[in-house]
C-alpha cells in the first residue's frame, strides 16, 4: 500500500505505482492487464512482479467501462432450485468451474432458471451484458435458452451436447453412449441376462445417449431389447425408487439394472432392499457419474466415472477462448468403469 499525503492514511496502489515499480509505461501495464498483447515476456514478468509487490488490485468497474466487459461469467442451471441441492453433480461442476475461473481472477455467478418466468428474466439479464459468457448446465430439448443466447451473440458453452443445435453452440460432454456400453457389457460379463435400465430424462443428451448405448450392447449380444426392461427417470432418487418398482412388477426375474445416474441408483437400491432382493447376489446394480452418492450407497455403487474436474476445466477453457473471439468447439471426454460392491 502507498502512503497518501493526508493524515498518513494508506491509499490503494494505482496503475501508476505498478508502472513506476516495474520501470515501464502506464500503457504497458494496461496492455498486460488486458491480456498481454504486444508486450515482451520481460516486460510482462516485470509488471506481474510489480503487481505482487505493490498489492495492486484491478478496478473492475473502471476497466469494464473501457473494455465493455463485465469480467464475470454466469453458471446457468435450467432446473428447479431443489434439483441444485439434491443432485451432487451440479455442486461438483459449480466448484470445478469456480476454481478454473479463479485462476483467471474471474468471478462466477450462479443463476437458477427452472421456470419459464425465471428463464425470461435470466435471459434478459445475460443479454444486457451483465456477464461476458455463460456455462449452461442441464439443457432440455425444447428449452429455448441456449438458442436465444447463441442468437444474441453471447459466448456460451453447454455441459452436454445441446439437442437440435448442431454446431451453433460449444459443448463439453462425457462420452455417455460409450460409458453406457461399458456398463452394460460389464453386467453381461457377470452372467446377467435380464438387465433393466432406469433412464435419465429422454429430453436431455445424457438420457438419450445412455439409453442408446444400453440398447446397442444388448442388440450386439443377441438379446432382445424388451420394452418392459426400460423405465424412465428424471435423475432424482425418488424416480429411481419408482423406476425399480415398475421394473420388478414388469420383470419379476430381473437380475441386473443399469441406472443412468448414481442418485437414481440409490433409489433403486432402496426399492430392492424393500422387496427383499439382495445386491449383488440377486440383482446387480450399476450407476453413472461416480458422484458422492456412489460412495454413500450401501453397498457402495459400481458406476461409470465422469471426469468432472476435466469437464469443468474444459468448459472454462472453451468459454474463455470464445470470449476472446474463437469459434465454437466440441469436446468429448472418456468415462471409466469403477467396480465396487453392487455388482
Write a short abstract of this structure.
With 343 residues, this protein is of the alpha/beta class. Helix content is 46%, strand content 15%. The termini are far apart.
Describe the structure.
Helix content is 46%, strand content 15%. The chain has 14 helices and 14 strands. The chain has helices spanning 15-22, 26-33, 41-54, 60-67, 81-86, 88-102, 116-130, 145-151, 176-189, 205-220, 237-250, 262-274, 292-296, 308-323; strands spanning 2-3, 10-11, 73-77, 108-112, 133-137, 156-159, 170-174, 195-199, 230-232, 256-259, 284-286, 303-305, 330-333, 336-338. Helix 8 (145-151) links the parallel strand 5 and strand 6 (156-159). Helix 9 packs parallel to helix 10. Residues 1-8 have low confidence and may be disordered.
Distance between the termini: 61 Å
List low-pLDDT spans. 1-8
DSSP summary, beta strand count = 14
Main sheet record: 6 strands, parallel
**Helix fraction bin:** 40-55%
Q: Strand order across the biggest sheet?
A: 4-3-5-6-7-13
Series of H and E elements? EEHHHHEHHEHEHEEHEHEHEHEHEHEE
Report mean pLDDT, rounded to a whole number. Answer: 89
Q: What keywords describe this structure?
A:
alpha/beta, disordered N terminus, 14 helices, four-stranded parallel β-sheet, 343 residues
Amino acid at each position: 500500500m502507498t502512503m497518501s499525503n493526508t493524515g498518513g492514511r494508506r491509499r490503494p496502489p494505482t496503475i501508476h505505482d505498478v508502472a513506476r515499480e516495474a520501470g515501464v509505461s502506464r500503457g504497458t501495464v494496461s496492455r498486460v492487464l488486458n491480456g498481454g498483447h504486444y508486450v515482451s515476456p520481460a516486460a510482462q514478468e516485470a509488471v506481474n512482479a510489480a503487481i505482487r509487490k505493490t498489492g495492486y488490485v484491478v478496478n473492475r468497474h473502471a476497466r469494464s467501462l473501457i473494455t465493455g466487459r463485465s469480467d464475470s461469467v454466469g453458471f446457468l442451471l435450467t432446473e428447479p432450485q431443489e434439483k441444485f441441492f439434491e443432485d451432487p453433480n451440479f455442486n461438483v461442476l459449480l466448484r470445478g468451474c469456480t476454481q478454473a475461473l479463479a485462476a483467471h481472477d474471474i468471478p462466477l455467478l450462479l443463476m437458477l432458471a427452472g421456470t419459464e418466468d425465471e428463464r425470461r428474466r435470466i435471459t434478459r439479464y445475460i443479454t444486457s451484458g451483465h456477464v461476458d459468457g455463460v456455462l449452461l448446465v442441464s439443457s432440455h430439448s425444447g428449452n429455448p435458452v441456449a438458442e436465444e443466447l447463441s442468437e444474441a451473440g453471447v459466448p456460451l458453452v453447454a455441459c452436454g451436447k445441446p439437442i437440435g443445435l448442431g454446431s451453433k453452440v460449444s459443448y463439453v460432454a462425457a462420452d455417455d453412449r460409450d460409458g453406457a456400453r461399458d456398463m452394460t457389457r460389464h453386467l453381461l460379463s457377470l452372467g446377467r441376462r435380464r438387465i433393466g435400465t432406469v433412464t435419465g430424462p429422454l429430453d436431455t443428451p445424457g438420457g438419450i445417449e445412455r439409453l442408446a448405448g444400453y440398447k446397442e450392447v444388448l442388440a450386439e449380444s443377441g438379446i432382445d431389447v424388451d420394452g418392459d426392461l426400460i423405465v424412465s427417470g428424471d435423475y432424482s432418487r425418488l424416480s429411481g425408487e419408482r423406476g425399480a418398482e415398475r421394473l420388478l412388477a414388469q420383470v419379476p426375474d430381473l437380475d441386473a439394472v443399469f441406472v443412468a445416474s448414481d442418485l437414481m441408483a440409490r433409489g433403486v437400491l432402496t426399492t430392492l432392499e424393500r422387496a427383499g432382493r439382495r445386491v449383488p447376489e440377486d440383482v446387480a446394480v450399476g450407476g453413472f457419474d461416480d458422484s458422492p452418492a456412489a460412495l454413500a450407497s450401501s453397498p457402495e455403487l459400481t458406476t461409470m466415472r465422469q471426469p468432472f474436474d476435466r469437464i469443468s476445466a474444459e468448459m472454462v477453457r472453451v468459454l474463455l477462448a470464445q470470449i476472446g473471439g474463437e469459434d465454437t468447439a466440441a469436446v468429448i471426454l472418456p468415462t471409466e468403469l469403477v467396480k465396487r460392491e453392487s455388482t
